[in-house]
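Researcher: Re-running this chain for the archive, since the previous output was lost when a drive failed. Same request as before.
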Amino acid sequence: MLACSAVLLLPACAAEEPRDDKPPSTPAGVTAQAGSATSVHVMWDGSADNKEVTGYEVYRAGTKVTSLPGTKRMVDIEGLAPRTAYSFTVRARDAAGNLSEPSASASVTTPSAAPDDDRAPTRPGRVEGRTDSGTSVTLTWRRATDDTGVTSYDIYQEDSRVHSVTGTRTSARVTGLRPGTVYSFTVRARDAAENSSPDSNSVDLTTPSAPGDDSPNTAPTDLAATVRKGSIQLRWTPPETGAPVKEHQLHLNGKPATTIVWGAQPPAGTATYTMTVTDEPGTRYSIKLRAKLPDGTWGDFSAQRTVVVR
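Model: Regenerated structure tokens:
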């Protein structure tokens, strides 16, 4: 009698990915500076992780006050009390929920409130800058004045506040930038009553390209905006693309507004364009341009200019 046997074949189990139980490194370089009588600006250096840092948690005296995505390394803590001492720490978090150890504590004391103060500081003077690397720059300026005292200086990049320093400082280092990119910075002074000065002059800085990146700069340069009654006149230098630039795209307040098109022979050297405006005086415009390249794609944006309609 022939005996038969059957063999049951089971599919091999897929290898499970090892559980991530390694926390990110502890955030370093944590600083806390009073921005006003009721707010503090907290800033820190990025943490490292075996996979990815997905967020940061900011604590005040051991109690979590806010959570931020992993791309953020600064935050303004609002709603504080005047003339009060505070301490802040930061923890990094990864996708598996692992938390780093708390950072070293950064202490700060908010200044006294300035009741009935509606007078803004003067604008900071003569803002200048230099590139330190492909990802950082240093800015310097002359002090502003205020009837009750300047408590902080806020650094803006394209109308977004990216950094703050105490009112005793006249320089700041801005990090987390992209190599080979043009940035336009302005500085505003702020007092304890949250009054902000007008914008300083703007300074344009282009970070060095990453090593091995020989791509040409495709951003228009030397953009200037002059406000006249009922119009804004723009002047700029088109990028060197190997062929005449026949089109530029104009962006207002972050959105495409119009395409400036020249005929077969675009202007050589400096280009100009006059934009008619019908908005009420005091209307604020943020303006930047980019050129259409010979391959039909859009190049990099110019530095941004901010103007106020007369």
